Amino acid sequence: MRPPAQLMAQGMPRGGHGFTLLEVMIVLGIFATILVILFGTYSAAVERAERTRERAQVYHEARALLDLMAQDLRSAYVEPRPSTQATLTPPKVRYPFVGEDVEEDRLPADKLTFYALLPPLRPEAPDAEVCRIAYTIEPKAERSQEKILFRRVNCSLDPEATEREQVFPLTDLARGLDLEFYDAQGGERLEWDSRNAQQGNRLPARVKIVVMLIDQRGFLRPFEMLTEIVLDR
Q1: Closest CA to 97 of 191, 177, 194
Q2: Which secondary structure element, helix H or strand E, spans residue 31, and what is its range?
Q3: What is the model's pTM?
Q4: HSE of 174, CA atoms in CB hemisphere, 13 A
Q5: pLDDT tens string 7-65
Q6: Is residue 233 part of a domain?
Q7: Distance of CA 202 to the CA centre of its chain
Q8: Is residue 117 part of a domain?
Q9: Could you tell me if residue 209 is inside a domain?
Q10: In angstroms, what is the C-alpha Rg of the chain?
Q11: Under a CB-based contact definition with an 8 Å cutoff, are residues 144 and 133 in contact?
């Protein structure tokens, strides 16, 4: 009878052996390379998704701001002028439309004040009431680069004689506000003042609004919209 050691030696194939250290290291290196490639691809996909999400957030905020401003401008109103008559002093315009061309920190910071026919905010008000609306972009704090775009609305009985107004901070992502005004002939103006007798039309025919918002990565992104003023000019 053969010894057990001899039987075991005969049952094993000749030349059979396990993995060497070099083979194990090669396999681990290949596996690590695959993991690095997969992780890099995943990280890039996550970063692209995050950038897309940030751009979408800024885009939707800009769209809401532009829609609000355009809706207000479409309802802009100037009191009809009295019939022409010989007077020493021109009649005062009660509800002027004033757009100012302003620049701060090398960025546009235009100001816009006008009156619009808005749905009533008070139960005793008529179907529509004349409200004073002002859009301004102001620093968040003194000597601060962060700015806030404000919408101020005054629907009191005499907006010219009172400072009672509702203040709406619209966004703290705003860094610039640029407005351009176009008359009925297509002429472009950086400012508009319906109180000026030389201005021509009391209201512009169209207004281009450009808001500049900063995203989470610090990039300044301009968004623009061109809107018409539909009431009588």
Answers
A1: 194
A2: helix 21-74
A3: 0.70
A4: 30
A5: 455 555 555 566 787 778 888 888 888 888 887 777 777 677 666 677 778 888 889 99
A6: no
A7: 29
A8: yes
A9: yes
A10: 34
A11: no
Question: What whole-number distance in Å separates Cα of residue 159 and Cα of residue 157?
Answer: 6
Give CA–CA dist 135/73, Å, rounded. Answer: 11
In a domain, 1, yes or no: no
The identity of residue 6, as a single letter, is: Q
DSSP annotation of 84: P
CB 76 within 8 A of CB 178: no
Structural domain containing residue 190? 56-80+92-228
The distance of Cα 207 from the centroid of its chain, to the nearest Å, equals 17
- Nearest-CA neighbor of 115 among 101, 102, 96, 100? 96
**Is the Cβ–Cβ distance between 59 and 223 less than 8 Å?**
yes
Query: Is 76 within 8 Å of 115 (Cβ atoms)?
Result: yes
Q: How far apart are CA 181 and CA 100, in angstroms?
A: 11
State how far the Cα of 120 lies from the Cα of 122, in Å rounded to an integer: 6
Task: Name the β-bridge partners of 192.
Answer: 99
